[in-house]
Amino acid sequence: MIIVGLTGGIGSGKTTIGKYFNSIGIPIYIADDEAKALMNRSKVIKRKLITLFGEDAYTDKGLNRDYLASKIFIDKTLLSKMNAIVHPKVALHFKRWLKKQKAPYVIKEAAIIFENKLEDQYHFIITVIADKSNRIKRVIERDNVTEDRVLAIMNNQLSDEEKEKQSDFVIINNKLEQAYKQAYTIHNKILQNIRQ
User: Fold this and answer.
1) Are 39 and 111 contained in the same domain?
2) Residue 66: what pLDDT?
3) What is the rounded distance in angstroms from the CA atom of residue 161 to the CA atom of residue 182?
4) What does pTM read for this prediction?
């Protein structure tokens, strides 16, 4: 099975592009969503995260995302330790999901492919980029956070330029209609490549 990585910095619109691929028949696995679900569902992960972050890691309603975010975005060591707890479980879940798919290829959407040096897990990588001002505006509207918070997250991620250098395809997502056209062209190129 051909696995295509879909990545991009916060606010680039990678999830929107992922939904487009899904609408044309390509199964999509959203690693961040599965990670969040596992952090709430898995007793082992919960226990390890409480050991790492303290009792405030969870509330009565489940994972305390704001609390964790405030910790990991100022301390990259904590971020790495959290990823080491969560990512192996997500990888296992993905393998099980992959076995059930019947399409010519699948997309795995993951925010930190390059940061975690996971490029080798993919046959192709698509990076979604957008102007910084667009990205900031999108995240403020979506998450109801301050510009400073968005910039802090951006500073923890690789630059678009670095991601572009390591990608097979790039989608510029400033105007959605144009981004969809680029995605469709890439879809056809991947299918061509599979047929060869």
Assistant:
1) no
2) 87
3) 18
4) 0.88
| Domain extent for 188 | 1-27+103-196
Helical (H) or strand (E) element with 62: strand 62-63
CA 66, 67, 69, 73 torsion-angle sign: positive
Q: Which CA distances in Å does 5 have to 14, 110, 121, 180?
A: 11, 7, 8, 17
Q: Which helix (H) or strand (E) holds 71?
A: helix 65-72
* One domain for residues 110 and 191: yes
Distance between CA 49 and CA 164 in Å, rounded?
33
CATH of the domain at 48: 3.40.50.300
Query: CA 153, 183, 19, 72: dihedral to nearest 10 degrees?
Result: -10
The two tokens of residue 164 are 């572009």
Per DSSP, the residues of 25-52 read: T--EEEHHHHHHHHHHH-HHHHHHHHHH
pLDDT in tens, 71-112: 887 788 998 899 899 989 999 999 999 999 999 999 999 988
Regarding whether 180 and 135 lie in a shared domain, the answer is yes
Tokens standing for residue 177: 């209609």
Number of compact structural domains in the chain: 2
92 and 184 co-located in one domain: no
Residue 61, pLDDT > 80, answer yes
